[in-house]
């Protein structure tokens, strides 16, 4: 099951751990997910090993062969507590069971024996090989080599669980074992429990949201109780925040199944936004809104601690395509914003093209729009994320409120429509 899941992710799917419904035994599930996670997080180093071990490259049309090999290398080199013998034995067994890979079980055995002989050396591969060159170079230029070295720690360690509280009851924080981050964001000790098994989940007293993802909604300055449009809203983390802030919220997204998740989340939390399924590049509202939060679809490279696969799925061409989509949605948002209205644009991306460059473009393209700079005092505990120009740039190397564990890379800019 782990190999099938990894194969699907290598083929372009999003990483989602195996669920209890898919693999009910808790110990098996945790082992399988640990293997998948390690293979994804260590993909850069495993690529180097495979290049050395397979002289003729990866065999074509070989079913789960590549996924099994990657999982086994992850286990051999990075998870020595599980045992090298089981890695070899299970890899060969799994290969034999797959009709498309069966003829390669001898190769699997030979390759893994060579890997075992080299495992001490493989364990010492430099950590900077974990990031694809295109991102490492770009990020070092934008954020500095020291920060990027700490990004790599986040890639290896993964992300902690951050949540946003519906009500800020200290007893709730205590029951969750939470550590205060910024405003109503806390970091929770999960002790490996699934999210819906944590205290007060069913009661709808909190929702999962990385601390960085909770910043944009707090920066919107529409008039109190005003009409606010949450563009690209599903699954609704920001919709919940805007509802909590007392706005009359319309949540719009083009993806019907993601909107079903948004509706379920709002029902659990007891919020009642208006929900619209529409394409944000062409949507025209009957009445303009006092505020718009645009959480644009993006490369999501800022989420690599939770989605390591994004590092390997993205390239320059698709980032360019996403910039066009962001501009299309932005242009429509400006049309739907009332004079004097507040517009917050954000992306969970570390790519300057999807962040700072969008601000430059927007200020040139829309003469009725001005930047409404964010002041460092608006983000107590995270003042360092506010740039001298009043933009917000969070990095996985940052410690919100001095708490360890990093945060997603996010970009936020706030505008005001003048006329
Ligand atoms: C970054 S996610 C939004 C996360 C959400 N704002 C939250 O806080 O929970 C981006 C969303 O954009 C939506 N999307 C992509 N293209 C769109 C379009 N053309 N119109 C409307 N929504 C779109 C996707 O379906 C996805 O739900």
UniProtKB/TrEMBL annotation:
In the record, the note on similarity to other proteins reads: Belongs to the class I-like SAM-binding methyltransferase superfamily. RsmB/NOP family.
Report the PANTHER family cross-referenced here.
NOL1_NOP2_SUN FAMILY PROTEIN _ ANTITERMINATION NUSB DOMAIN-CONTAINING PROTEIN, NOP2 YEAST -RELATED NOL1/NOP2/FMU SUN DOMAIN-CONTAINING
The protein's matches in Pfam families, at most eight in alphabetical order, are given as: Methyltr_RsmB-F, NusB
Q: One biological-process term from Gene Ontology? A: RNA methylation
**What's the protein called, per UniProt?**
SAM-dependent MTase RsmB/NOP-type domain-containing protein
Residue numbers annotated as active site = 348
For whether the record's keyword set contains Transferase, the answer is: yes
PROSITE patterns this protein is in? SAM_MT_RSMB_NOP (PS51686)
- Cite the SUPFAM superfamilies for this sequence: NusB-like (SSF48013), S-adenosyl-L-methionine-dependent methyltransferases (SSF53335)
Organism of provenance? Devosia riboflavina
- Per UniProt, residues of the SAM-dependent MTase RsmB/NOP-type domain are 123-418
Methyltransferase listed as a keyword: yes
Q: Which residues bind S-adenosyl-L-methionine?
A: 232-238, 253, 279, 295
Molecular function (GO) terms for this protein are: RNA binding; RNA methyltransferase activity
**What keywords tag this UniProt record?**
Methyltransferase, RNA-binding, S-adenosyl-L-methionine, Transferase
């Amino acid at each position: 099951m782990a190999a099938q899941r990894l194969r699907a992710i290598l083929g372009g799917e999003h990483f989602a751990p195996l669920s209890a419904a898919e693999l009910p035994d808790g110990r098996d599930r945790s082992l399988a997910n640990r293997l998948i996670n390690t293979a994804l997080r260590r993909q850069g180093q495993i690529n180097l090993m495979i290049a050395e071990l397979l002289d003729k490259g990866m065999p074509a049309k070989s079913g789960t062969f590549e996924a099994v090999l990657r999982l086994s290398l992850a286990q051999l080199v990075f998870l020595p507590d599980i045992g090298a013998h089981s890695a070899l034995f299970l890899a060969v067994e799994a290969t034999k069971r797959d009709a498309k890979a069966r003829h390669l079980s001898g190769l699997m055995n030979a390759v893994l024996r060579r890997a075992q002989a080299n495992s001490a050396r493989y364990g010492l591969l430099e950590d900077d090989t974990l990031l694809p060159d295109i991102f490492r170079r770009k990020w070092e230029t934008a954020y500095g080599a020291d920060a990027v070295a700490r990004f790599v720690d986040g890639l290896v360690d993964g992300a902690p669980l951050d949540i946003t509280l519906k009500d800020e009851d200290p007893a709730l924080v205590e029951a969750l074992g939470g550590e205060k981050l910024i405003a109503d964001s806390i970091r929770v000790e999960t002790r490996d429990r699934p999210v819906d098994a944590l205290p007060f989940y069913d009661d709808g007293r909190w929702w999962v949201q990385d601390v960085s993802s909770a910043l944009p909604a707090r920066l919107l300055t529409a008039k109190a109780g005003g009409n606010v449009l949450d563009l690209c809203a599903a699954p609704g983390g920001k919709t919940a925040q805007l509802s909590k802030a007392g706005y009359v919220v319309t949540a719009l997204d083009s993806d019907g199944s993601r909107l079903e998740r948004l509706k379920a989340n709002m029902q659990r939390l007891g919020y009642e936004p208006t929900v619209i399924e529409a394409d944000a590049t062409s949507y025209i509202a009957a009445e303009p809104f006092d505020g718009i939060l645009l959480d644009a679809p993006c490369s999501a490279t800022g989420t690599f601690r939770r989605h390591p696969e994004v590092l390997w799925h993205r390239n320059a061409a698709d980032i360019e395509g996403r910039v066009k989509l962001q501009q299309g949605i932005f242009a429509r948002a400006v049309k739907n914003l009332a004079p004097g209205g507040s517009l917050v644009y954000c992306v969970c991306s570390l790519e300057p093209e999807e962040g700072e460059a969008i601000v430059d473009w927007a200020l040139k393209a829309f003469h009725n729009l001005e930047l409404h700079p964010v002041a460092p005092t608006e983000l107590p505990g995270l003042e360092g994320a506010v740039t001298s120009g009043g933009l917000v740039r969070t990095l996985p190397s940052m410690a919100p409120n001095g708490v360890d564990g990093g945060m997603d890379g996010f970009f936020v800019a706030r505008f005001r429509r003048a006329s």
